[in-house]
Write a structure and sequence with these properties.
By secondary structure, the chain is of the alpha+beta class. It is built from five helices and seven strands, in the order E-H-H-E-E-H-E-H-E-H-E-E.
Length: 169
């Protein structure tokens, strides 16, 4: 039987998380452009909290929450004041960890944390990310329109994105 654990990420987890993220990037092109400093990308300075998913003791995924204050386009789209919003960010599960419900559990940990703080959770996702969209919709996240990303893909595009809001408790 495989051992699965979702737990808060520590600095010591970052090298293994970067390795898992690299596997995701090679398989799925996420993130769209490989960051110059992937550990810093995984742990942005404004991060509220982050988790990793472990499968048999190996880090195979992660997720983070960041403040809504710097995501005004998203806050407007979902109709929640930016100071009442946390943004689900950096969700990934390496191919080696897929099929175990880890993405659902990572999202659940982040949503539970936001709810414990009395805050809502939202995210944006590329329109072409059908697997991610299916995940969020299966978890009851509500779509709130579309827009154009402020960030660029590896080929320099600003992709079309969808905005989602997590269900209230």
């Amino acid at each position: 039987m495989q051992v699965i654990e979702i737990r808060p990420r520590t600095d010591a987890d970052l090298p293994a998380a970067v390795d898992a993220l690299r596997a995701v990037h090679l398989a799925d092109h996420y993130p769209g452009a490989w960051p110059a400093e992937p550990a810093a990308w995984l742990a942005p300075p404004d991060e509220v909290r982050a988790w990793v998913a472990e499968l048999d003791g190996a880090v195979v995924g992660g997720v983070a929450l960041v403040p809504g204050a710097t995501h005004t386009q998203l806050a407007e789209a979902v109709g929640v004041a930016a100071d009442r919003l946390l943004v689900l960010s950096r969700l990934f599960v390496a191919p080696a960890g897929r099929g175990h419900g880890l993405a659902r559990r990572l999202v659940g940990a982040a949503v539970d944390e936001a709810r414990s703080r009395g805050l809502r959770v939202a995210l944006d996702v590329k329109e072409e990310s059908s697997a991610a969209i299916a995940l969020y919709e299966s978890l009851g996240w509500t779509p709130h329109g579309t827009g154009v990303a402020t960030w660029r893909t590896q080929d320099g595009r600003h992709p079309a994105i969808r905005f989602y809001l997590a269900p209230e408790a």
